[in-house]
Every structure is written in structure tokens, then in C-alpha cells.
Amino acid sequence: MFLNFAALGIGGLFTSEGVPSQWYQTLNQASWTPPGWMFGTAWTIIMICFAFFMAYAIKSKETRVKLIWIYAIQWVLNILWNPVFFYFHEVLAGMVIISALTVLMAYMLITFQKNQRLATLFILPYVIWLVIATSLNGYILFYN
Predict the structure, then answer these.
(1) What gap in Å lies between CA 103 and CA 100, rounded to an integer?
(2) Taking the model in full, what pTM does it have?
(3) Which of 15, 52, 53, 97 has its CA 20 to 30 A from that of 142?
């Protein structure tokens, strides 16, 4: 769980300055953009759920290596999106990163559903949130 929240903390270094920034506030944003407080709440719940999944799934010796690789890639992508989008204002690059993260987590959900059927329910909030976040990034990309 420490690594999950470390990722949030590192990403938060860029998000905390980015959300209230003039650049972000003047963007044409989607009508379904959640209020700012919801992002921290959602990510906290998502990372707790994801930690439960990882604690359960890591026990499976047959999928452990694959799980660790996917986890590592999602960790990097999750952190990388924040500075790319909020600090460098690279909306297209952010879209590529968040799309890759969304596809990776959907792949994780589908792949591990075979062996850890109930545990994968803990990944579902992450995938749903990423679909929403990807749509928000896409809206900003296409309407600004």
C-alpha cells in the first residue's frame, strides 16, 4: 500500500499546483468534470482497493511475475501523467499516457479475472475512474 500512496504523493506534487493554476482553470472543461475534492477522495479509495487486490493476487505464484510487471508499469504511468499534463501542459502526451494506463488496467482486470475472480472487483473502481479521467483529458484535448 505504501507504493500506491507514494505514487499519489509524487503525482500530487504536480496536481496540487496544477488544478488551481490559471492554465487549468481557463481550459474548456467537460460538464462531467467532478469537483476538485472528489479527486483526492476517489484516488484514496482506489489505491486502498488496489492494495487489497495486490495483497491477494501476489500470493499466486503462477501470475506473480506478470503482476509485478503490470504493477510497475501502471505505477510509472500513473505518476508520469501528472507532470506531463499539469506541469508541462502537454495535453496530447497526457492523453497518450492516460490512455495507455486505462488500457493496461483494463487488461489487468480481464487477465487476472480468470484466477482471482472476486479479487478483481477491487480493480474495477480504478478502471472506471480511469475511463472518466481519460474522457476528461480527451475533452480538454479536443476542445481547447
Answers:
(1) 5
(2) 0.88
(3) 15
Q: Per the structure block, which three cell numbers stand in for 111?
A: 487477465
pLDDT at position 3: 60
Q: Cell 509524487 appears where?
A: 10
What are the residue ranges spanned by the domains of the chain? Answer: 2-143
Q: Which of 28, 9, 16, 23 is nearest to 136 (CA)?
A: 28
Q: Which long-range contacts (CB under 8 A, 24 or more apart) does 104-109 make?
A: 104/70, 104/73, 104/74, 104/77, 105/74, 105/130, 107/70, 108/70, 108/74
Instruction: Go through the chain and tell me how many residues it has.
Output: 144
pLDDT digits (tens, 9 = 90+) for 9-20: 556 666 656 677
- Mean pLDDT check: name the lowest of 18-22, 78-82, 139-143: 18-22
Spatial distance between the Cα atoms of 10 and 82, rounded to a whole number of angstroms: 9
DSSP 5-52: HHHHHHHHHHHHHHTTSHHHHTS---TTPPPHHHHHHHHHHHHHHHHH
